[in-house]
Amino acid sequence: MPSERNSGILLHPTSFPGRFGVGDLGPEAYRWVDFLKLSGTRYWQILPLGPTGYGDSPYQCFSAFAGNPLLVSPEILVDEGLLSEKDLRHRPSFPKGKIDFGPTIIWKNEILEKAFNNFVSAKSERLNLEFQSFLEMEKSWLEDYALFMAIKENQDGAPWITWDSKLKKRKSRTLKAFQVNHAQDIIRHKFNQFLFFRQWKSLRAYANTNGIQIIGDMPFVIAMDSADAWTHPELFLMDADLKPTMVAGVPPDYFSATGQLWGNPLYKWPVHQRQGFSWWIERLSAVLKLVDLVRLDHFRGFAAAWHVPFGNETAIQGKWIPGPAKELFTAFQKKFGKLPIIAEDLGVITDDVKALRDGFGLPGMKILQFGFTGDPDDDFLPHNYPVNCFAYTGSHDNNTAQGWYDQASPREQAWCRKYLNAPKGSIAWPMMRALWASVAMNVVAPMQDLLGLGAEARMNLPGSQTGNWSWRMAAGDMNNELAERLKDLNFTYARLPQEQKLAYTRQLEQEQSDSVKPH
Predict the structure, then answer these.
(1) Of 118, 160, 339, 417, which has the maximum CB count within 10 A?
(2) Contact of 450 with 479, CB cutoff 8 Å
(3) Helix (H, G, I), strand (E, B) or coil at 30
């Protein structure tokens, strides 16, 4: 983790502009890296990259190890000869500025199937060797994932918990028969993963070469309807019929008076301990193959997680049950050395959570939107930040800065303007300036805040089931003017990378010299 002051922008790849209904890993992703480099921004933060399931949420994925085929770039597939331009012409009229997931997923799956069929018929020796190498490297999770997805497809997308008992309980004879009868479907799902990992690896290499580090995200819980829960039910709190006995959530908090009932299965920690936390180590290793740093979502869950009896309709009734946090993170440290981890330590943070975070030297998070309570001692105000933290105007779960301000109480608005010395009106950049000026080693703003967008651009509203994750940038949003404005902010508050600082200083001196020359 770099030791100097840094800045970052939060933007999930689905939010890139483009012709194909959803942002992907194609040309716009490379333009994004160029934008970050030009602006002197070191970090690009993203959400989980897994294949999304219910509600299109990146926090409810069909696998903790797989990538999302929805992100595969059709344009790169054309460049590689797996598709033709003609294949891309007949597509739905996708909306601009927003993802309509239904038709987008249908069309993207059709395109990926064409690419797979072309791969099979072309018999490219080079590509096939790459594919075979990928199958060997990722077989520890890929075999079960591809089988899971093929069965799910065959079952019209039904959750695995509702499958026929022999499929649900992974009876060997039944699975082998399915593998024989649906071999091509299973290989197709493996090939989709090959395409995703191939394109992501190339994009990440381009980012790293240009001085950009990627911050990924690893949720504390996994989805119930996932290959992981289906393959390893012994790791989770489930009964003999594989129904969860306890599910995850959080008690009533800032976001919800009835808490948040996530419904994810929770862990049989004694089993994980007996196995030396091998599943966790493999999971973190998989994320670190994709990114440079990892934000651990719901970090407090490692110290103690809110367990809600299965069947409850809200998260009000539950209890905190401790986990073997220190033992787990010691195992992480033994495997990875200095941990490239950011602790998402928001919400109800108790002394044991702080001890876990600080004991392993992990930076926590600060959210500026939470700070305008009227109390100058509020921990979320920039003058109270510790050096070792990642400070945000807001996260993917918050409103945009402008959206928050527009919906805040008159008291919060007044305190916000007073603290930032900002006039009424646009508030995002004054909030960013206060953040960038703080002693926090690392600061991050969502792209929506750079653009000064309102509540219509919010990424997620916790507790809601529809209308989330769909925001996209406009084609002209990644422009040089905005990059230069961000670069000036990075320079002013010593967050510009050293290699750019000298050149920018000379540029400013030249501009000042030119401005005083007689005309």
Answers:
(1) 160
(2) no
(3) helix
Instruction: Out of 28, 56, 217, 297, pick the active-site residue.
Output: 297
CB-hemisphere CA count at 13 Å for 276? 5
Query: Residue 45 maps to which CATH number?
Result: 3.20.20.80
In tens, the pLDDT along 156-169 reads 999 999 999 999 99
Q: Can you give the C-alpha Rg of the chain in angstroms? A: 24
Domain annotation covers residue 80: yes
Is 128 a member of any domain? yes
Separation CA 213–CA 205 (nearest Å)? 10
- Which of 58, 435, 41 is closest to 214 using CA atoms? 41
Residue 20 domain-assigned (yes or no): yes
244, β-bridge pairs: 238
Q: Record the pTM.
A: 0.96
Catalytic residue among 144, 217, 344, 345: 344
Report residue 2's pLDDT band, with 50, 70 and 90 as the boundaries.
low
Confidence of residue 424 (pLDDT cuts 50, 70, 90): confident
**Spatial separation of the C-alpha atoms in residues 301 and 360, rounded to whole Å:** 16
Residue 98 is assigned to a structural domain of this protein = yes
pLDDT at 459: 98
Task: Return the SS3 of 1.
Answer: coil
Range of the domain at 204: 1-215
Q: Widest CA span of the chain, in angstroms?
A: 88
Q: CA-CA distance, 226 to 209, in Å (whole number)?
A: 34
Beta bridge partners of 342: 295
pLDDT, one tens digit per residue, over 17-38 is: 999 999 999 999 999 999 999 9
User: Domain total for the chain?
Assistant: 1
Mark whether 344 is an active-site residue: yes
Question: What average pLDDT does the segment 114-140 reach?
Answer: 96
Span 354-381, average pLDDT = 97
Q: Retrieve residue 214's tokens.
A: 């990627």
Instruction: Find the catalytic residue in 75, 292, 345, 397.
Output: 397
